[in-house]
Design brief:
This protein is an all-alpha fold. The protein is 74% helix and 0% strand.
Length: 477
């Protein structure tokens, strides 16, 4: 262990011991969420295609529905957390996730699978924004009271999420030796523990958290106010292998404060927390629908998210072809998590002094395209075994590196394109639009897997999408 690693570990332990019981609970929650999620989802596509016998387009549709029911309804979950508080929304989300995993384990027909994945996705749309917004708020309050930088708390939150993303696939792969139902029941069991822990330990009312009234909630969902107050934090949306701490726009893109690697999402959260009495400007959804620059960003971000979701669709198919088993898939997911933990901050610091938002997203999208290109180039050779897994590993590495550039830049760009006082609305809209792109794109990708086209074609098509999306990125005025 190097001296730098030792110092970083020491700082992390010091931060952990200084946290409030609530923050510790929420950070451990993120760990448990990702263990339960990643124990199941990486192996879903192969189960649907082999055990249930769904066509490729239907497998893609099911996975797209899972993403859309989470991403598209994220703004709803955040608004409900504002209205009713963190505890009831998190508990409801855990109940739905338990029901969804159990249902999925026993689902044998298409309609049952779709119902189960919709429950699984909507559950995350409930508990993820509730937990993340409260972590962001507590981190700000801790910093303002002299307890230390919020970035230390967010770093721990990220590490917890990545640890869950590392352990979850390994747990799922081990349980696949029994069957997929055992994997689903284990995932449900994790959320039973989370539900019991939160029922006992999560406060009914968290001091300082202001709830909005019902009419204000309706205005939030319609876009009549600034949107959901619980801004999607940069620390880790469940279901993403990497959602790292994101630098604020000033810190990340050329200011002397770039080394702080301050979260862009949390910077927005601090501003929202400070503005208790929010503005009520005009415009709303109508103005958003006419904001061509913002919609172009949404399309480019949707292309990235579609590419990312191939970890759950086309990658399992390739792993099964090369190795005859899903076991290596767990290690590929672990590789991605390990990359994020070890390289995200160095990558962020490096890009902070060299790339603006557009160039960072463009570079990331091209890296993602190169990842698909690696497999496309190797696919005609028909390699199997360990050698056959090398292109898949290259795809995971390049996709993860691309994500490290794209995701932070996209979130940091939204405040520049959003109307004043409507950051929550625009953040939720980006999730909804990108979720819709994933829904349509995943079905099309699944259809490509069913065709008699050369095996490299689906990978080449997926490589072309991020390349084309680079041209959509808004140019600086």
């Amino acid at each position: 262990m190097t001296e730098r690693t030792t110092r970083a570990t020491g700082r992390g332990l010091h931060t952990w011991t200084g946290l409030s019981p609530l923050l510790r609970l929420l950070i451990l929650t993120q760990l448990a969420f990702n263990i339960g999620f990643f124990a199941v989802l990486p192996f879903l596509a192969e189960h649907l295609g082999t055990a249930i016998g769904l066509a490729g387009w239907m497998v893609g549709l099911v996975l797209g529905l899972r993403t859309f029911s989470q991403q598209g309804l994220f703004v709803v979950g955040g608004a409900l957390a504002d209205r009713y508080g963190v505890r009831p929304v998190v508990l409801a989300g855990c109940v739905l996730r338990i029901a969804g995993f159990v249902w999925l384990g026993y689902a044998a027909q298409t309609w049952a699978v779709i119902g189960a994945v919709l429950l699984i996705g909507f559950a995350a749309a409930l508990f993820s924004p509730a937990v993340e917004s409260e972590v962001a708020r507590q981190a700000v309050l801790r910093e303002e009271s002299g307890g230390g930088s919020r970035t230390n708390v967010l770093a721990l939150f990220t590490v917890a999420g990545q640890a869950g993303a590392f352990v979850g696939p390994l747990l799922g792969a081990a349980l696949l030796a029994v069957d997929f139902r055992a994997v689903c029941l284990a995932g449900a069991g994790v959320f039973v523990l989370v539900l019991a822990g939160h029922f006992r330990l999560l406060p009914q009312h968290i001091p300082g958290r202001v709830r909005v009234r019902g009419r204000a909630l309706l205005m939030d969902l319609r876009g009549g106010r600034s949107g959901v107050r619980c801004v999607r934090s940069a620390c880790g949306v469940e279901g993403h292998v990497a959602e790292p701490p994101v630098p604020s726009r000033r810190a990340a893109w050329g200011s002397p404060r770039s080394s702080e690697a301050e979260s862009g999402g949390v910077r927005a959260g601090r501003r929202d927390a400070a503005e208790i009495h929010q503005k009520r400007p005009g415009g709303g959804l109508r103005s958003l629908s006419r904001n061509g620059r913002f919609l172009a960003l949404c399309c480019a971000y949707g292309a990235y998210l579609l590419a990312y979701n191939q970890l759950y669709l086309i990658l399992p198919d390739e792993v099964e072809r090369t190795s005859g088993s899903q076991a290596p898939l767990a290690w590929l997911f672990a590789l991605s998590s390990l990359l994020v933990v070890t390289t995200q901050l160095p990558v962020t610091r490096w890009t902070a002094h060299r790339l603006d938002l557009r160039r960072s997203m463009g570079a990331g999208l091209l890296l993602i395209a190169a990842g698909f290109g690696v497999v496309a180039a190797a696919r005609p050779a028909g390699w199997t075994g360990t050698v056959g897994l090398l292109p898949a590993a290259g795809f995971v590495v390049l996709l993860t590196l691309g994500q490290m550039l794209v995701a932070p830049a996209a979130r940091a760009w939204v405040p520049d394109l959003a109307e004043e006082g409507r950051l929550g609305l625009y953040t939720g809209a980006m999730s909804s639009v990108s979720g819709l792109i994933v829904l349509v794109g995943s079905s099309a990708t699944g259809s490509l897997l069913d065709t008699e086209l050369p095996p490299a074609v689906p990978w080449l098509v997926l490589a072309a999408i991020p390349v084309v999306s680079v041209a959509l990125l808004p140019r600086r005025r």
